[in-house]
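Lecture notes, unit on protein representations.

Consider one protein chain, 299 amino acids long.
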Amino acid sequence: MTPPPPAVLHTDLPCAKKLGEGKVRDIYALGGDLLLVASDRVSAFDVVLGNGIPGRGVVLTSLSSFWFRMTRDIVDNHCLGTEVENWPELDPESRELLRGRAMRCQKADPLPVEWVVRGYLTGSGWKDYLREGRVSGVELPDGLGHAARLDPPILTPSTKAESGHDEPISFEEVVSLLGEEHARRGRDLALALYERGRDFALEKGFVIADTKFEFGLFDGKMILIDECLTPDSSRFWPADQVREGAFPESYDKQVVRDWLERSGWDKRPPAPSLPDEVVREALGRYLHIHEALTGRSPF
């Protein structure tokens, strides 16, 4: 395995104005566009951990770019490119720091909704189903087991919280927030994007159990923004483990959450640092997903 680049936990570019810093991404203004920089920070339970996973930001950027290209026939997206050599505003040192982990993006007005699509019954949707027999107001048949395939997939939107947890909302609430035209357009696009990703991933040996998308408005048109079908925004399962009633292994940062749960941490800042073996295992899963989907290493 090609070794990852050194970990990048924080960026401070002298050649661009920093607009914000999220749990993973740093956002800059660059020549009238946005520059999204995926750091190697990792968060769990809404807390950024003390150490990161080297190369993680490169994997996330590469996978989003891959899916943005593959889905542009469904909906346009904000990605203008990832080749730092093509951005004259950057100095050589910044180019080297950002190589592989930066995406130049079209500015858009984000819509305040996360479009969560579920193709299999798991996670919070499974808990809702056990309690109520439905998920975010969507009625489901009785007697379903964990990992049951939902055909057709269902949309279970949530608010896009500035901090803390996102809250599930009904489609009717989405209509109230955005208006019927944008609500229906977002729903149709999210379902089409999920189905494209699900079908492709299945050919590569993985099931995408659920995922989330974000959209924004540019010149009055809805476009896909943020990230797309990465292990941070999606739940990947090995296809050979998926059957109703099973609990497949998740190829995302679940290994990080599992270790934190065992550590006795009370889920309040500051979070403990991850042991080296957990960092290696988490990175290995990210790389496995990337190479299975794209056929190459991100480094």
